[in-house]
Amino acid sequence: MSDLSHVLVLAGGLSYEREVSLRSGRRVAEVLRAAGVDVEVRDTDAGLVPAVLADPPEAAFVALHGGVGEDGAIRSVLELLNVPYVGATPDACRVAFDKPTAKAVVRSWGLATPDSVALPKETFHDLGASAVLERIVDRLGLPLFVKPAQGGSALGASIVRTAEELPAAMVGCFAYGDTALIEKYIDGVEVSVSVIDLGDGPVALTPVEIVPDGGVYDYAARYTAGRTEFFAPARLTDEEIEACKAMAVTAHTALGLRDLSRTDIIVDRSGQPYFLEVNVSPGMTETSLFPMAVETAGRDLGTVFRVLLERAAQRG
Length: 316
Prior knowledge:
Distance between the termini: 21 Å
Mean pLDDT: 93
Number of strands: 14
CATH class of the largest domain: Alpha Beta
Largest sheet: 6 strands, antiparallel
Number of domains: 3
């Protein structure tokens, strides 16, 4: 049994990823209860603050995705309430949540990341969309990968293989955010590397290879059982696996993250890994990559979560 008597799991919120967050929260609560932890699951609504003030938890696990869970805001509220929590601080979240900023930080630490440009939709309105899009293709070449500068679950993301596809991709991207990140598309093996810190410093777990049935790891491929094939460990050479693990730990450290994170990487045909993005609140559903990596490493997911919560409570 755990020494923790009252733990709060936050799930839901009002982002586009609400349904995924609810699934993550249920999974976190289930495995924690199996590990002997008394868990309360709450949404982030007007009842949260009064409930916490009336019955303060010893620690909180943030299973929120999208802006509400990853931009640092809810963690700032937890700090105002003196509730310790698992995961990165508000400042670190803000840096990691903005993909162009995160790319700039890890690049300064020597990590490779695809060439890219980030532009708000106002730029296209003010300067003329066709002229700007033409310069993007001239500068970065084709194919391209377009995604919102903030957010997750591949919402608003798409591959662009011809110049004619780019305008529609931008419209789809702007439906989920005001700034688009347009990257040079890297053809290779897509992997996810989870990092945990149980007290001895950040450790990268086995990289998980992602092979979606339609070629793109989009929202449906992420959260529909059977739509994606996973290989753990990834089908890479030992040298490539170690390079990916080192990249994930470096990204975790460079961005000032804490407790857990998940870094998405593409390994090109020459074996060069490229940093794509990092997630401070990884998905915890039945098809999510972080739980898969923990279980592949031979660790019990509930035990890992319990230790992270105990460490957070000790910080508090």
